[in-house]
Every structure is written in C-alpha cells, then in structure tokens.
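Dear colleague,

Thank you for sharing your sequence with our group. We've completed the structure prediction you requested, and as agreed, I am returning the results in plain text so they can be pasted directly into your records. Please verify that the sequence below matches your submission; if there's any discrepancy, let me know and we will rerun it promptly.
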Amino acid sequence: MARPLTCGAAREDPMQHVFLRSLAFLALASAASAQVVLTSWDFTGTGGDQPFTPASLNANNITGLDFTRGTGITATAAANSISANGWDDLSPDDYFSFGFQVAGGFSVQLNDLQIATRSSNTGPGNLALRYSVDNFTADLATIVNSGTNFTNIIVDLSTLPAMSGNVEFRLYAANNVSASGGTIGAAGTMRVTRYLDPVTSAFLPVEFRGTVGTGGIGTSYCSQAVANSTGNQGQMQATGSAVRAQNNVTLMASALPNNSFGFFLTSRDPGLINQPGGSQGVLCLAGGIGRYVGPGQIKNSGAQGSFSLAINLNTMPTPQGSVSAMAGETWRFQAWYRDVVGGSATSNFTTAYAVTFQ
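Please find the predicted structure tokens below.
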C-alpha cells in the first residue's frame, strides 16, 4: 500500500500541494503514455496441454501471434501455462513460439518482455530467447531455470532495432544441462506461465512492452523538389523495417496529381540534377540509378494522389542488373511521375529518401 502524502508546515497553502501533485500525476501519465503493452498472453485457467494460447490483449496496429509449440516437443499438462516435454534432443524444432504482427506503415520499438518459466528437475535448465529478424541465430537473452523453482524475469529488449511486419520469438533449450544440473531427460518438462509481480504478488500475463511508431525508416532530403500542379512538393518515404534480414520495405510517393503515372528510382549515391529528361523537377540521385519499371511496378496515383511499391531487397535494380542491398549500405529512393503544368515539361520528381540498412 502506498504511503499517504503528508503536508508541510501549517502555513503552506494546501491548494499548492493539490496543484503540485496534479502536475506530478500528469507528468507520470505523459511519460507512461509513450510505452504500452504491445501484446500479451494470459494463461489463467489453461491446462498447459492446449494446442496454443491466443493473445489476450493487443495495442492498436499490433496483432499478437498464437503462443504455441514447435513440432519437436510434446504437450504436457501444467495449470495456468503452456507446457511441453521432449527437449532432450535439442532439435531445431524444439521451441515455444510467440510474437506479433505490426500493421503496415507502423513500426515497433521494444522495451522489454515480461515472462515466467519453470522446468521439472530433468527439464531444460538454460533457455535461449531468439527472434526471426536474424533467422533465430543470436541469443537475445538467457533464462535460467533452477530445480523446480519458478523464474520470473523482465527481459530488456530496448537495444533491438525497430521492427515491422511479422516478428516471431522463440524459446529454445540453450544446451543439454537440466534444471537440476544433470542432463535433460526425454520426459523433462518446461512451461511458460504467468509472471508473479514481486510488489503486488499478483499473477500477470506474459507480455511485450514498447512503443508503436508511424512514419518512415530513414531520412527525407532534396528540399529543392519543385512544386507540382497541385501546388505541393511530391513526397517520398519508405516504411517497414531498416533491418536488412527482415526484407520488409515499402516505398511510398504522395502529394501527387491525381491519376498520374509514375515509378520509383533508386541509387546508392546522392545527386542534384535540375530538369533532367524534360522534367520540371530535380533528380536527387546519382551514379548507377535503377528503375522499378517491371511488371506491376509502374503505378498510378489514382484519386488519392499517391502510390506505393513493396520492394525486394535481394533484387535492387541497377543499370548493370539487380543486386542485394547489404547491411551497412545506404540506398536512396525517389519517384518520377507525370505532371503537366504547361510549357514543354511533362514530368516531375518527388523529394528523395535515404535508408541505411542494419
């Protein structure tokens, strides 16, 4: 229970205390609003051997994936959890799976994962948390189960890059050491269960916490872009993820004339060329400029004055053929579109956008 607030000397204005407390409350509320529960799984009332547990809560623009098992482990009963045995062979299919899907145009910056685990004496003693961004290669964290004790842990994930699209996490047995210090047995079990809050002693769901953001994954440049026939500069942006391994990038051009045809350009080099190709605009790319002009890649802005294209980072166009974008590289994008404002100019360019892949 929180300690009651106490007043100072009798001469102090009590309304001042009310005002200051209100300011403190508003400050805390403002700080807390930046971080939300992204998705959670409440195992209350489950038997442990259920095929999967659906997400019980989702933030706006987030959809939790089912909490389920890999095909290499077998369901076992354990109250208020999801449980399994068969961890002893350390197969690539021995894992618990969970995660979330981020709606298009949004990204997630994780803060932490709240989770609890428990093994039998012959169940896994060391668990490895991995995720799909690097194809489950690196251990993001290690969770230690000792004997048959419950392990309640907050895993710090704040250093991970922003994510978008479908992101899966897995819990594996990190090695063949059991919770009792021996070797994992075929009948040894491990469960994921409710987190016991050390302050309130309340059982809480397993949950990811973090922030949901909108907007692009890089930096806009080329302020010299020329206004089009709508009176606005055409805008260029890329959304999705700057993590190369996710291969999840969508190019977006907006503030265009309605029903205008156009396509996207890309290059690793910036430039500044006025009115190329009979346009009235500014090309802000240089070097080996590639064009997205294949089947389905020439777009129309329609009634909304915008178009978009999901690209494959393994097939970035260049004049010499397609190449793969590599982690550490910066690629630049711009849209070239039809725009008639009188005179001989019949096209224009959007602003440009640079993405450095991780």
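Summary note from our side: The longest strand covers residues 106-119.

Kind regards,
the structure core
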